[in-house]
Protein backbone atom coordinates (compact mmCIF):
# COMPACT_ATOMS: atom_id res chain seq x y z
CA UNK A 1 0.00 0.00 0.00
CA UNK A 2 2.62 2.50 -1.10
CA UNK A 3 1.74 6.06 -0.16
CA UNK A 4 -0.98 4.98 2.28
CA UNK A 5 -1.55 7.08 5.37
CA UNK A 6 -0.62 5.30 8.58
CA UNK A 7 -4.04 5.61 10.19
CA UNK A 8 -5.67 3.59 7.38
CA UNK A 9 -3.63 0.45 8.03
CA UNK A 10 -5.62 -2.70 8.67
CA UNK A 11 -2.89 -4.67 10.41
CA UNK A 12 -2.28 -2.79 13.67
CA UNK A 13 -0.89 -5.03 16.40
CA UNK A 14 -3.63 -6.05 18.84
CA UNK A 15 -4.02 -8.85 21.36
CA UNK A 16 -5.54 -11.88 19.64
CA UNK A 17 -8.01 -12.27 22.51
CA UNK A 18 -9.47 -8.78 22.01
CA UNK A 19 -12.28 -8.71 19.40
CA UNK A 20 -12.41 -5.78 17.04
CA UNK A 21 -16.12 -5.37 17.83
CA UNK A 22 -18.00 -6.51 20.92
CA UNK A 23 -21.72 -5.67 20.96
CA UNK A 24 -23.27 -6.19 24.38
CA UNK A 25 -27.07 -6.26 24.85
CA UNK A 26 -27.84 -3.42 22.42
CA UNK A 27 -31.44 -2.32 21.85
CA UNK A 28 -32.86 0.41 19.62
CA UNK A 29 -36.48 1.40 19.00
CA UNK A 30 -38.21 4.18 17.10
CA UNK A 31 -41.20 6.33 18.05
CA UNK A 32 -43.62 7.17 15.23
CA UNK A 33 -45.12 10.31 16.68
CA UNK A 34 -47.67 10.85 13.90
CA UNK A 35 -49.08 7.36 14.41
CA UNK A 36 -48.60 7.30 18.17
CA UNK A 37 -46.67 4.03 17.89
CA UNK A 38 -43.34 2.67 18.96
CA UNK A 39 -41.47 0.26 16.67
CA UNK A 40 -38.66 -2.01 17.75
CA UNK A 41 -35.54 -1.96 15.58
CA UNK A 42 -33.39 -4.48 17.43
CA UNK A 43 -33.56 -5.93 20.94
CA UNK A 44 -30.85 -7.29 23.24
CA UNK A 45 -28.31 -7.88 20.49
CA UNK A 46 -24.96 -9.34 21.51
CA UNK A 47 -22.24 -10.42 19.10
CA UNK A 48 -18.47 -10.33 18.66
CA UNK A 49 -16.41 -9.84 15.51
CA UNK A 50 -12.75 -10.82 15.61
CA UNK A 51 -9.91 -8.99 13.89
CA UNK A 52 -9.85 -9.93 10.19
CA UNK A 53 -13.20 -11.74 10.24
CA UNK A 54 -16.06 -11.30 7.80
CA UNK A 55 -19.33 -11.86 9.65
CA UNK A 56 -22.66 -11.90 7.82
CA UNK A 57 -26.15 -11.07 9.11
CA UNK A 58 -29.14 -12.42 7.20
CA UNK A 59 -32.88 -12.08 7.59
CA UNK A 60 -36.01 -10.75 5.95
CA UNK A 61 -36.59 -7.06 5.31
CA UNK A 62 -37.68 -5.33 8.50
CA UNK A 63 -35.99 -7.84 10.81
CA UNK A 64 -33.62 -5.20 12.23
CA UNK A 65 -30.40 -5.91 10.32
CA UNK A 66 -29.73 -2.36 9.14
CA UNK A 67 -30.51 -0.99 12.60
CA UNK A 68 -27.50 -2.83 14.00
CA UNK A 69 -25.14 -1.39 11.39
CA UNK A 70 -26.49 2.12 11.88
CA UNK A 71 -26.00 1.83 15.64
CA UNK A 72 -22.37 0.81 15.07
CA UNK A 73 -21.83 3.72 12.67
CA UNK A 74 -23.84 5.93 15.03
CA UNK A 75 -26.35 7.02 12.42
CA UNK A 76 -28.72 5.68 15.07
CA UNK A 77 -27.96 6.21 18.76
CA UNK A 78 -28.49 2.97 20.71
CA UNK A 79 -30.94 3.22 23.60
CA UNK A 80 -29.15 0.67 25.75
CA UNK A 81 -26.14 -1.62 25.71
CA UNK A 82 -22.51 -1.21 24.67
CA UNK A 83 -20.71 -1.30 21.33
CA UNK A 84 -17.03 -1.80 22.14
CA UNK A 85 -14.68 -1.13 19.24
CA UNK A 86 -10.93 -1.77 19.42
CA UNK A 87 -9.74 1.29 17.51
CA UNK A 88 -6.21 1.84 16.25
CA UNK A 89 -6.29 5.49 17.33
CA UNK A 90 -7.92 5.40 20.78
CA UNK A 91 -7.87 1.79 21.96
CA UNK A 92 -11.14 0.18 23.07
CA UNK A 93 -14.02 2.70 22.99
CA UNK A 94 -17.78 2.42 23.39
CA UNK A 95 -19.30 3.66 20.13
CA UNK A 96 -22.67 4.03 21.87
CA UNK A 97 -21.34 6.85 24.08
CA UNK A 98 -18.25 8.08 22.23
CA UNK A 99 -17.99 11.87 21.80
CA UNK A 100 -18.76 13.23 18.35
CA UNK A 101 -15.21 14.44 17.63
CA UNK A 102 -13.69 10.98 18.01
CA UNK A 103 -16.66 9.31 16.28
CA UNK A 104 -16.15 11.53 13.23
CA UNK A 105 -12.44 10.69 13.26
CA UNK A 106 -13.21 6.96 13.25
CA UNK A 107 -15.68 7.35 10.37
CA UNK A 108 -13.10 9.28 8.36
CA UNK A 109 -10.10 7.12 9.17
CA UNK A 110 -11.05 3.62 10.32
CA UNK A 111 -14.69 2.64 9.79
CA UNK A 112 -16.19 2.49 6.30
CA UNK A 113 -19.88 2.14 5.46
CA UNK A 114 -21.43 0.94 2.20
CA UNK A 115 -25.17 1.48 1.90
CA UNK A 116 -27.60 0.82 -0.94
CA UNK A 117 -27.85 4.54 -1.64
CA UNK A 118 -25.34 7.07 -2.98
CA UNK A 119 -25.07 10.23 -0.86
CA UNK A 120 -22.63 12.78 -2.25
CA UNK A 121 -22.02 16.50 -2.64
CA UNK A 122 -24.09 17.94 -5.52
CA UNK A 123 -22.29 18.72 -8.78
CA UNK A 124 -19.47 16.29 -7.96
CA UNK A 125 -18.34 13.95 -10.71
CA UNK A 126 -17.84 10.21 -10.34
CA UNK A 127 -14.06 10.65 -10.60
CA UNK A 128 -14.07 13.38 -7.93
CA UNK A 129 -16.14 11.23 -5.55
CA UNK A 130 -13.74 8.29 -5.71
CA UNK A 131 -10.68 10.56 -5.71
CA UNK A 132 -11.83 12.33 -2.54
CA UNK A 133 -11.97 8.98 -0.73
CA UNK A 134 -8.61 7.91 -2.15
CA UNK A 135 -7.03 11.14 -0.87
CA UNK A 136 -8.10 10.19 2.67
CA UNK A 137 -6.16 6.93 2.47
CA UNK A 138 -3.11 7.86 0.38
CA UNK A 139 -0.61 10.69 0.72
CA UNK A 140 1.04 11.14 -2.68
CA UNK A 141 -0.74 12.27 -5.80
CA UNK A 142 0.49 9.37 -7.91
CA UNK A 143 -1.06 6.81 -5.52
CA UNK A 144 -4.31 8.79 -5.32
CA UNK A 145 -4.65 8.96 -9.10
CA UNK A 146 -3.66 5.32 -9.55
CA UNK A 147 -6.17 4.03 -6.99
CA UNK A 148 -8.95 6.25 -8.35
CA UNK A 149 -8.39 4.91 -11.85
CA UNK A 150 -8.09 1.32 -10.62
CA UNK A 151 -11.44 1.43 -8.83
CA UNK A 152 -13.34 3.06 -11.69
CA UNK A 153 -11.91 0.54 -14.12
CA UNK A 154 -12.54 -2.39 -11.77
CA UNK A 155 -16.25 -1.60 -11.67
CA UNK A 156 -16.38 -1.17 -15.46
CA UNK A 157 -17.24 2.50 -15.56
CA UNK A 158 -16.76 3.69 -19.17
CA UNK A 159 -14.38 6.65 -19.27
CA UNK A 160 -17.10 8.86 -20.72
CA UNK A 161 -18.91 8.56 -17.36
CA UNK A 162 -15.97 9.44 -15.12
CA UNK A 163 -16.50 13.20 -15.35
CA UNK A 164 -20.30 13.16 -15.26
CA UNK A 165 -22.53 13.81 -12.25
CA UNK A 166 -24.00 10.63 -10.69
CA UNK A 167 -27.55 11.98 -10.79
CA UNK A 168 -27.48 10.90 -14.44
CA UNK A 169 -26.51 7.30 -13.52
CA UNK A 170 -28.73 4.25 -13.21
CA UNK A 171 -29.42 2.77 -9.78
CA UNK A 172 -26.88 0.01 -10.33
CA UNK A 173 -24.21 2.49 -11.46
CA UNK A 174 -24.79 4.62 -8.37
CA UNK A 175 -24.43 1.57 -6.14
CA UNK A 176 -21.20 0.52 -7.87
CA UNK A 177 -19.85 4.05 -7.41
CA UNK A 178 -20.79 3.94 -3.72
CA UNK A 179 -18.89 0.68 -3.30
CA UNK A 180 -15.87 2.01 -5.19
CA UNK A 181 -15.80 5.10 -2.98
CA UNK A 182 -15.83 3.05 0.23
CA UNK A 183 -13.41 0.35 -0.84
CA UNK A 184 -10.73 2.63 -2.29
CA UNK A 185 -10.00 3.75 1.27
CA UNK A 186 -9.22 0.17 2.38
CA UNK A 187 -10.83 0.80 5.78
CA UNK A 188 -9.79 -1.03 8.92
CA UNK A 189 -13.41 -2.01 9.59
CA UNK A 190 -16.05 -2.08 6.84
CA UNK A 191 -19.83 -2.20 7.29
CA UNK A 192 -21.81 -3.43 4.27
CA UNK A 193 -25.57 -2.79 4.13
CA UNK A 194 -26.89 -5.05 1.34
CA UNK A 195 -24.21 -3.81 -1.11
CA UNK A 196 -25.18 -6.18 -3.94
CA UNK A 197 -28.97 -5.83 -3.73
CA UNK A 198 -29.52 -4.20 -7.15
CA UNK A 199 -26.41 -5.40 -8.98
CA UNK A 200 -26.20 -7.84 -11.86
CA UNK A 201 -24.14 -11.01 -11.52
CA UNK A 202 -21.06 -9.54 -13.19
CA UNK A 203 -21.04 -6.57 -10.81
CA UNK A 204 -21.60 -8.85 -7.82
CA UNK A 205 -18.52 -10.80 -8.84
CA UNK A 206 -16.53 -7.55 -8.90
CA UNK A 207 -17.70 -6.72 -5.37
CA UNK A 208 -16.87 -10.20 -4.13
CA UNK A 209 -13.37 -9.98 -5.63
CA UNK A 210 -12.64 -6.74 -3.77
CA UNK A 211 -14.11 -8.12 -0.53
CA UNK A 212 -11.76 -11.08 -0.80
CA UNK A 213 -8.82 -8.73 -1.41
CA UNK A 214 -9.73 -6.57 1.58
CA UNK A 215 -10.15 -9.61 3.80
CA UNK A 216 -6.75 -10.95 2.70
CA UNK A 217 -5.17 -7.59 3.61
CA UNK A 218 -6.68 -7.70 7.12
CA UNK A 219 -9.84 -5.61 6.85
CA UNK A 220 -12.59 -6.74 9.23
CA UNK A 221 -16.11 -6.74 7.77
CA UNK A 222 -19.67 -6.99 9.02
CA UNK A 223 -22.25 -7.25 6.25
CA UNK A 224 -25.96 -7.82 5.83
CA UNK A 225 -27.21 -9.65 2.75
CA UNK A 226 -30.26 -11.20 1.13
CA UNK A 227 -28.03 -13.01 -1.35
CA UNK A 228 -26.91 -16.10 0.58
CA UNK A 229 -25.16 -17.53 -2.48
CA UNK A 230 -22.98 -14.43 -2.66
CA UNK A 231 -21.95 -14.89 0.99
CA UNK A 232 -21.04 -18.56 0.67
CA UNK A 233 -17.32 -19.12 1.05
CA UNK A 234 -16.70 -15.47 1.98
CA UNK A 235 -18.23 -15.10 5.44
CA UNK A 236 -16.56 -16.76 8.40
CA UNK A 237 -19.77 -16.85 10.44
CA UNK A 238 -23.44 -16.01 9.93
CA UNK A 239 -26.14 -14.64 12.21
CA UNK A 240 -29.81 -14.84 11.29
CA UNK A 241 -32.30 -12.22 12.48
CA UNK A 242 -36.05 -12.30 12.94
CA UNK A 243 -38.23 -9.65 14.60
CA UNK A 244 -35.27 -7.65 15.93
CA UNK A 245 -33.31 -10.50 17.49
CA UNK A 246 -31.03 -13.35 16.56
CA UNK A 247 -32.59 -16.72 15.86
CA UNK A 248 -31.59 -19.52 18.21
CA UNK A 249 -28.92 -21.66 16.64
CA UNK A 250 -27.32 -18.91 14.55
CA UNK A 251 -23.68 -18.07 15.18
CA UNK A 252 -24.13 -15.98 18.31
CA UNK A 253 -21.71 -17.73 20.62
CA UNK A 254 -17.98 -17.12 20.44
From TrEMBL:
GO terms for cellular component: plasma membrane. Coiled coil: none annotated. Keywords: ATP-binding, Nucleotide-binding. It comes from the Bacteria. One of its GO terms (molecular function) is ATP binding. Pfam families: ABC_tran (PF00005). Residues 21-254 form the ABC transporter domain. This is ABC transporter domain-containing protein. It comes from Collinsella tanakaei YIT 12063.
